[in-house]
Design goal:
By secondary structure, the protein is an all-alpha fold. The chain has one domain. The chain is about 90% helix and about 0% strand. It contains 3 helices and no strands. Helix 1 runs antiparallel to helix 2. The longest helix has about 90 residues. About 5% of the residues have low confidence.
């Protein structure tokens, strides 16, 4: 009779071990599915952030164009004002008028150069932000994958969660003498 009890306990322990292995496989599958969903969501977030950066870049380009046009208008008005005052004063053919027009042109060129330089720096900033967002997305993906891998490895390596602990209530206690 004790032989049948031992066989029954061994079969029960084998079935329980198989159930535990099946549960570990299911848990691993759930972890992998969660990792895939997390990486997809992170990818969508990165794509949305990159689109937002692109819109900001378009806004900056529109603003820079507007500032350039404003500078051109101001230059035209300044030149017309200088020419008008010189004509009224009767010095339209003087070197003073030429100097005033040259000064206005120089100031215009300086303002336009500054605007172009700031626009270029803004484009560099937007490019770096997009690169950063892409790298952050990849980091989140790799973090999720490593979490699943380490979680699965830990479940198989941890002796505390092994069959000896899980099935300790099913095994008969050995009599101590």
């Amino acid at each position: 009779m004790p032989v049948f009890t031992s066989i029954g306990l061994a079969l029960g322990a084998t079935a329980a071990t198989a159930a535990l292995t099946g549960a570990a496989i299911v848990a691993g599958g759930v972890g992998v599915a969660g990792s895939i969903a997390s990486s997809k969501a992170a990818g969508k977030a990165v794509a949305a952030q990159q689109q937002a950066v692109a819109v900001q870049q378009q806004q900056a380009a529109v603003q820079a164009t507007r500032q350039r046009r404003s500078a051109i208008r101001q230059n035209i008005l300044a030149r017309a004002g200088i020419t008008n005052r010189a004509t009224i004063a009767g010095v339209a053919d003087s070197s003073g008028l030429a100097g005033g027009l040259g000064s206005a042109a120089s100031q215009f060129g300086s303002n336009l150069g500054y605007s172009n330089q700031m626009s270029g720096l803004g484009n560099q900033l937007f490019s770096l932000e997009q690169t950063s967002l892409g790298a952050q997305g990849k980091a989140k993906l790799y973090d999720a994958v490593s979490g699943v891998g380490f979680g699965l490895a830990g479940s198989f390596m941890n002796p505390a969660s092994g069959p000896s602990t899980v099935f300790s209530g099913l095994m008969p206690k050995q009599a101590t003498t």
